[in-house]
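Saturday, quiet lab. Running sequence design on the structure tokens for the scaffold JK sent over.
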């Protein structure tokens, strides 16, 4: 019996090890597997940092990049550069067992270098509201923090669904959303912010453009004559991008005082705080409706 028992144990050990793995498919379709829940996580964008904390795994974050300012305690982790220029040597010295990358924000060659060095890289790129919740759940699973992570994912889902119901039948408002000032940039309907515009009953005047984040010029904005202009700025309180449009009194948005500031971190990061940003966005469009 002993030889047979030994054979059985030898057969079962690999199967048990495989069963204990935590695997999740990232937003590029790549399956990432960990032998155990991640304990040392590196986040390579401010959004990735927020999402990892939302997943309940903030205490496991050992590396961040520039502008990872939320939640405030995230800044206690070691900075390894910016999302466009990662200090690989410093990152490797922290021995992360999971790296959370940004598909369109981190240089592809640096991400591939991390993979070639044996680091598990989980790449994220939420394009739908559901994707935000899904990323939180997948990160929570990889980190072993399913209880708080799943609760936060469901809070976000429920909140966005409630807003969608509330604003489903509002009169449309023609909107220009400004992402950047120099060069002047906006978003199309396929962008996640474009979906916020639609949810709130807005009609994105540049929604049909082919690029997610198109570059435009002042003249096409004036020609489009939006009823409302919403923008962030260089910082959470900097409204000077909107001040620029005040010099064009012929613009309907300027004439009706529909120049609205939205703190950029609430709308330009695909994180649970987008629920707060969307609610604020919808309230601004309601204000524009009331001024007709």
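Result came back. Writing it out in full:
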């Amino acid at each position: 019996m002993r030889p047979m028992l030994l054979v059985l144990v030898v057969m079962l050990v690999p199967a048990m090890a495989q069963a204990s793995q935590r695997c999740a498919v990232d937003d590029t379709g790549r399956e990432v597997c960990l032998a155990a829940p991640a304990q040392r996580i590196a986040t390579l964008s401010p959004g990735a940092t927020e999402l990892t904390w939302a997943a309940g795994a903030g205490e496991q974050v050992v590396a961040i990049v520039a502008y990872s300012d939320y939640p405030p305690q995230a800044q206690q982790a070691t900075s390894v550069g910016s999302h466009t220029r990662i200090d690989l040597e410093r990152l490797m010295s922290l021995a992360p067992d999971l790296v959370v990358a940004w598909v369109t924000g981190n240089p592809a060659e640096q991400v591939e270098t991390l993979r070639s060095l044996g680091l598990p890289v989980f790449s994220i790129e939420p394009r739908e509201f559901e994707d935000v919740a899904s990323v939180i759940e997948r990160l929570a699973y990889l980190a072993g923090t399913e209880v708080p992570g799943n609760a936060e994912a469901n809070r976000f889902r429920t909140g966005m669904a409630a807003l969608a119901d509330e604003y489903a039948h509002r009169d449309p408002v023609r909107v220009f959303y400004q992402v950047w000032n120099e060069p002047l940039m906006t978003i199309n309907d396929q962008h996640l912010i474009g979906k916020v515009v639609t949810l709130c009953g807005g009609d994105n005047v540049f929604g049909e453009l082919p690029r997610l984040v198109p570059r435009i010029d002042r003249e096409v904005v004036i020609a489009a004559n939006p009823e409302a202009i919403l923008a962030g700025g260089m910082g959470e309180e900097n409204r000077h991008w909107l001040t620029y449009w005040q010099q064009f009194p012929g613009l309907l948005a300027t004439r009706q005082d529909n120049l609205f500031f939205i703190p950029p971190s609430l709308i330009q990061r695909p994180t649970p705080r987008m629920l707060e940003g969307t609610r604020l966005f919808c309230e601004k469009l309601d204000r524009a409706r009331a001024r007709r």
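Notes for JK: The chain is about 45% helix and 15% strand. Residues 5-17 have pLDDT under 50 and may be disordered. Ask whether to fix the surface positions before the next round.
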